[in-house]
Fold these 3 entries.
Entry 1:
Amino acid sequence: MELRHLKYFLAVAEELNFTKASEKLFISQPPLSRQIAELEEELQAKLFIRNNKKVELTEAGKYFEKETKELFQNLERISTKTKKIAENVSGEFRIAYISSIYSSVISDLIQHLKAQFPYVNFKLFEVSTTKQIDALEKGKIEMGIIRSPIHSPKIKSHLWFKDGFSLVYNKNTIQIKSENDILKLKDETFVFFNKDYAPHYHEVLLELCAFYGFSPKIIHEANNINSIVQLVKNGLGISIVPSNIAKNNPDSEIGFIELKKVNLFTNVSIITAKEDESEITRSAVEFLLPQRR
């Protein structure tokens, strides 16, 4: 199937007359009829009902017309955007990231890209891992920063860094000296990520607690790492967060203890569409990859 088959089909579908369609396409009628016949044969579906008086679309033809029109609209949109980005005239580049990634890194990335591509509009979205994968597959974002494994034939993944875990607590309400004292916290209130929002991460936290010999009493849940840390600071519980957060949180009221005994890590990865070879994407990935946390 070639684009010309689709163009010829749309012309006939619009005119519902082979003579008028052939005039519109500047070809004679026999080749047009032949092209439509080839298309029907390839699809193994009759697209038109033809008799001496009129031409009508079949139900299959009506469906094919709708989808083909959408296809051409998407092709036009893609062509226009590709041309604009290539010319560095305008365009939009959408980056999604998880809340547990330190914001200064994202800010540095945008500054780097803006210096290279001053006319491109960069947009940032804080989005969960599962929603990022879905958005990238549907073309709603150009790049994502996620945590946990990914299984998608449409996505290319670049490992950025492996992140460990740390216990986070309020120093004024919790007395703990080292990782060896964690079991003493088994009756404390825990603040976790919502399991529907980040199912893999939620399971890892449960696995961590099991390693230390207890099941956490989860009272509060949140969908944002900063909200979790704030709840801990307010004395509403303790939590386990990525060690990357501990390294970048200077708050004197909050304590962190890295969990070194358990051999559990999460992969923080940069994801892009498998077929995306744009200069902006390449520049973004190359900027981040050397900055292994």
Note: Residues 3-86 form a domain with the Arc Repressor Mutant, subunit A fold (CATH 1.10.10.10).
Entry 2:
Amino acid sequence: MAFFISLLKDWKWPCIAVGLSVFMLAAAHAFETFGNLAPCPLCLRQREVYWALIAMTLTGLALWKIVPKRRFLVALNVMIGLVFGVGVVVAFYHSGVEWGIFPPPTGCSGEGPIDPMAFRDFNEPMHVPSCTDAPFYIMGLSMAGWNGVISAFMAIISFVAAGATFRGAASDQPG
């Protein structure tokens, strides 16, 4: 358990969070490229959360290197947790659209897949995959559902990391 907590203290969790975000984006791209699963607009919205987290965290780590204050790392870990929380909300909404709980947003018409490599007349409208149709389910959850579970887990770990970094500041004090 001490090893796990040591991975969450200081600058380590923000670096792990960036790595996990890059992995999630790579996995989504692999499903798109190798699995031939074109993303719907809500799928792309879920990816934006990871891109935002990467940009925010790398900027935060760069600023922390300039002014290395522990409380800044605590705040960064809390912000990472909040961004992952936004990922949970977006994934929950997408899952709700797939299950018919929420109405799909405008632009999720489901007019068919988009082939970005196909030569076409640019005056012709593009076809967008449907946000209501999940390509597959694993243990009752779609890809959006699993993204929500992963985001929730990473949000919780981020808040635990903030606490571990904060408590690390107290234990580093002499006396």
Note: The two ends are 25 Å apart (CA to CA).
Entry 3:
Amino acid sequence: MTGSFRKIAGGSGCVAVLAACLVAVATGAEVQRNGRGKTMIPGNSTINLGQQTNSWRPLVKTTANLTDVRSIKSTFEFRTFDPEGVVFYGDNHSGEEWFVLALHGGVPEMQIYKADMLISSSGGPRLDDGLWHLMEVSTEGKFVLLEVDGSKALMVGLHSQKVEEVITGQLRLALGGILIDSSKLLVPFRPEMDGCVRAGSWLDLTTPWEMEDDGAELRPCLETIQRGSYFPGSGFAVFNISALSIEAPESGVKIVLEGEFGQMDGTVLSIRGGGALVLGVDIDKNSQTMLLTFGNTVFSTASNTKKIMLMYHKQSIHLSYGEEPFEYQQNLTEGKNLDQSIWREGRLAIGGLLGEGEDAVGSNFLVGCLKKILVQGKQLDMDLSAKDASVWSHTCPVLQRERDNGRDQWV
């Protein structure tokens, strides 16, 4: 994130350097504690930003004196499948001037506030492709420049008629969140960023990062990843169905799930409405069985498929799966039509069985990667749910066979 520091070359002020002020992280986080009991991480550590849930609060932050700044260029490597969220932030004088680098629609976006000017600019290549990209933030005169993989991606000019004073004081930097109220942003966006940074140089500063949440554990940055939502067996995600804007439920509601279901274990999906559990889909990895629970009806079939489609009509529920679809249909008797109010008042859970409120009861949390979760043809975004911090919104590990025991494991 940014901060304030003494005037350096060219005169676009602290904010220009603010942008450059931020950007670092390398390999091997050596976790320590400071005198206030906070977890400290060296500035050259690899850090996974994807463990914040519904919060603008940064994952890590640091503070440095502007007099310690010796460089106006910062570089780091960045990798994500997430199209939207905060990468880093910086400010000086506790937020009087600030800088934010984020992704919006997969494209880099810079927002800068300086001398009563609020500027936003986006452009460059899409970065949500799961590949490592070399990022460089620097200043050239009155311009803040973002380079991606050695090519200019985004440039923002800054000029104020105000007399620029020599800046002293402290610089605050943060990763994965911001230190100002989100209402100050010119362009709103969702803050959560499921991505990793590594191999950084942050203005040559050596100040360590401090973790905001004392109880949090650093999530690893995996060597090999794939697109999807990963559930490690310790939590689930809940959506209010009304927020999904399901249209024309009278003509049927279709939910499509894709993944290696034969390698999963636990509750994949559940729907609750009208005070009762409407539907549940569970997988038992040991028996390679998938159970569909609909009211008092339980249907069992093999789980060795990569695609499940559930279609709800007013008087029936329809299940199909596989490349050569197996189909099962449960017709409802007179007076037992599917209550259409669930599409207005119900809740949909991915990775757990819904109980009262938003609790999960009576089932195992899902272990596995869901590559696609489509409702009425639209991909569900885990960042729009109330989810456990253990759920990876946009990133999955890769299923690999262990040499020693011949079993497939998520690694």
Note: The two ends are 32 Å apart (CA to CA).
